[in-house]
Amino acid sequence: MLEEFNTKKAPLREDTTFATDLELDSLTVMDFVAAMEDHFDIIVPLNVLPDLETLGQVGDMIEKIVEEKRD
Predict the structure, then answer these.
(1) How far apart (Å, rounded) are the C-alpha atoms in residues 58 and 64?
(2) Angle at 70 between CA 67 and CA 71, to 5 degrees
(3) What are the helix and strand counts (H, E) for the chain?
(4) How far apart are CA 18 and CA 35, in angstroms?
(5) N or C: more exposed end of the chain, with fewer CB within 10 A?
(6) Is-contact 6 24, C-beta < 8 A?
(7) What is the DSSP string of 12-28?
(8) Within 10 A of 32 (CB to CB), how many other CB atoms are there?
(9) How distant, in Å, are the alpha carbons of 10, 23, 45 from that of 42?
(10) Cα 42 off chain centre by
(11) What is the pLDDT along the chain (71 residues), one digit of tens a residue?
């Protein structure tokens, strides 16, 4: 899902950062989060967005939200 946002073609790993490695601004990160919300049919709380700096953190957050949705 991130490929269309990865214009720098940076390697995508758990520790890849949005700001430094991918050079994404906050609006682009919001667009990416919106795409994930649509794909996984979830809602990401806005208050967690400032804490999401790496792909691993986003993956963990999505996993947690999906699990909570199942329960």
Answers:
(1) 10
(2) 95
(3) 2, 0
(4) 15
(5) C
(6) no
(7) --TT-BTTTTS---HHH
(8) 20
(9) 27, 25, 10
(10) 13
(11) 888 889 889 999 999 999 999 999 988 988 988 999 999 999 999 898 888 899 999 999 999 999 998 87
- State pTM to two decimals: 0.83
* Integer-rounded Cα radius of gyration of the chain: 12
48, 21 contact by CB (below 8 A): no
Query: Residue 65 has what pLDDT?
Result: 92
Structure tokens at 63: 């996993």
- The helix-helix angle for 26-40 and 55-70 (nearest 10°) equals 30
How far is C-alpha 16 from the geometric centre of its chain's CA atoms? 11
Which amino acid is it at 34? A
Contact 36, 1 (CB under 8 A): yes
